[in-house]
TrEMBL record:
This is Acetamidase. Pfam families: FmdA_AmdA. GO terms for molecular function: hydrolase activity, acting on carbon-nitrogen (but not peptide) bonds, in linear amides. Signal peptide: none annotated. It comes from Phascolarctobacterium faecium.
Amino acid sequence: MKIFAKDKVVFNFSKTNQPVYFVEPGETFWVETDDCYSGQIKTETVLRPDIDISIMDCSVGPIAVSGAEPGDVLCVEVLAIQLAEQGVMVTSPGLGVLGEKITEAHTKIIPIKNGFAEFNEKIRLPLTPMIGVLGVAPAEGSVHCAVPGDHGSNMDTKLIKVGSKVYLPVFVSGANLALGDLHACMGDGELSGTGIETAGRVCLQVEVIKDRKLARPMLETPDAVYTLASRADIQEAIQTAVHDMVEFLMLKKELDFADAYRLLSAACDIQISQLVNDNITVRVKAPKLDLQLESVF
């Protein structure tokens, strides 16, 4: 099985980035990643103002997927996530939704062992490993890996975890997949500005889906299907994710707009993935059992 080293990274998603790794549809492979700080914080003496934030959220890749062409859909299934032995959480003035209450920067190193994050002597959090950055090259322009969009990237969605499938629109030949920013634990919203940031490695399997259209990322878990949208304005993000789910329900359940809209309101939930990046990411959940949905495609 191929293992892609963490030393080949991009700091922006762009179609001009040349692929450095190559896989076939159906292939399973490992990707090693650094933490979101590119390994700059090893001890509690290093503070966020001390580091180079321009290289934050660097992503391993690009990984070219053979046969993926513009207009296709790339399915990325998360098979395993292995974490490093410690994670880090920083606070700094202005960081997170209550950042104005932080007067000085502080760094907390959190040991990771025996299935738990050792937050302090009394609090041990069960690990909930997830991938923060997962995306493909956009059709145009260059987008920093810290900024999510219709191409995916830093969606910081805690459901991108083992057992989930992420569907991404393909904009360039090969898709040029890249990923990074693992978390040992993170709640919806990423409210203080970080999860428990850590290095590690991820086992993925990719498939190329032909003759299907997808404007933005979708996510599938064993019990639900999600539309995701990332926008600078939260209301616009909500409207976009809701619009995508209504269109999905119209297609899958053979409904007109009015009935799909009603069904969404009766059975689906709006959820916040993260509130702290340049673009906010939200998702709409459609439960598989209630709506008799088998999969995205």
